[in-house]
TrEMBL record:
The active site is at residue 199. Substrate binds at residues 102, 104. Keywords: Metal-binding, Zinc. Residues 17-257 form the SMP-30/Gluconolactonase/LRE-like region domain. The lineage of its organism: Bacteria, Pseudomonadati, Pseudomonadota, Alphaproteobacteria, Hyphomicrobiales. InterPro entries: 6-blade_b-propeller_TolB-like, SGL, SMP-30. This is Gluconolaconase. Its cofactor is Zn(2+). GO terms for biological process: L-ascorbic acid biosynthetic process.
């Protein structure tokens, strides 16, 4: 059964490919990207004000470094962004010598290690990978990924999750909680069937996995054993990624996209690309800061 929960529009700006939401509890600010258009959105939840920053490049995710800086993952590398003026300084390149790829789904582990996914710009088979930025150095975790998604971590930091949307599989991998690095091989947690595909995910404080189901207009909630527990309706067909927001982290921000929709499909999905707030009655977790040293 699809649940209808109270839902509002946080931003009516239509994103070509909305992705990478995160929340800074210290400032009550949500951030997300329009990957295809090279835009970064900033929303102060208390006031409802939304600002849009032009980045000049495709980017897909960010992590907070400290009160004045963010680490932005872009198509050619990781950049330190200064909040005061929006200045971007390259921290380290990432597949900068491969113009066929770009960054995609990413999330910060509790240890401060940043997992970063890349993929082909046209979703070419096995052209992407998942990397770890650990203490300032990049290493490859899982090569040969077509569309990396659903990167998230259990509350104790001992399990990492990721999906290859093209394979319709969500994997679980044991981690060293102190480093966020694998200490075993990925195992299949679930295989997605039916309408839609596995897109972005986030774990709540109880270890449940909240997954945006691309193409199905919903967020599915799974147990750590891979059992589907809930499905919440999103008023846009191509829901792309969730994040817990608000001072009590009980609401769910969900991005969406109009990518690959023709005029008829967009007319049938008038809120496609908007960004939503769902009253999810959940217990979320605050996003950790990225550690660069």
């Amino acid at each position: 059964m699809m649940e209808e929960v109270p839902t509002s529009v946080l931003s009516a700006e239509h994103c070509h490919l909305g992705e990478g939401p995160t929340y800074d509890a210290t400032t009550d600010t949500a951030w997300w990207f329009d990957i295809r258009e090279g835009r970064l959105f900033e929303a102060h939840l208390g006031s409802g004000g939304v600002r849009v920053h032009a980045l000049g490049r495709m980017a897909s995710a960010l992590g907070r470094i400290d009160a004045g800086r963010q680490l932005v993952v872009a198509e050619d590398g990781c950049y330190i962004r200064t909040l005061a003026d929006g200045a971007m300084t390259l921290f380290c390149p990432l597949e900068a010598d491969n113009p066929a790829t770009r960054s995609n789904d990413c999330r910060v582990h509790q240890s401060g290690t940043f997992w970063i996914g890349t993929m082909g710009r046209n979703a070419e088979r096995a052209l992407g990978a998942i990397y770890a930025l650990h203490r300032g150095k990049i290493s490859t975790l899982f090569p040969g990924i077509s569309i990396p998604n659903s990167i998230c971590f259990s509350p104790d930091g001992a399990t990492g999750y990721f999906a290859d949307t093209a394979r319709a599989v969500l994997y679980a991998v044991p981690l060293n909680p102190a480093t966020g690095l694998p200490r075993g091989e990925p195992e299949v947690l679930l295989r997605h069937t039916g309408i839609g595909g596995l897109d972005g995910s986030v774990c709540d404080a109880d270890g449940r996995i909240w997954n945006a189901c691309w193409g199905a207009g919903r967020v599915d909630v799974y147990s750590p054993q891979g059992e589907r527990l809930r499905s919440l309706r999103v008023p846009a067909k191509q829901a792309s990624c969730p994040a817990f927001v608000g001072q009590d982290l009980s609401r769910l921000l969900v991005t969406s996209a109009w990518q690959d929709m023709d005029a008829e499909a967009r007319a049938a999905d008038p809120q496609g690309g908007c960004t939503f707030l769902l009253e999810a009655s959940a217990r979320g977790r605050a996003e950790p800061d990225v550690k660069l040293a």
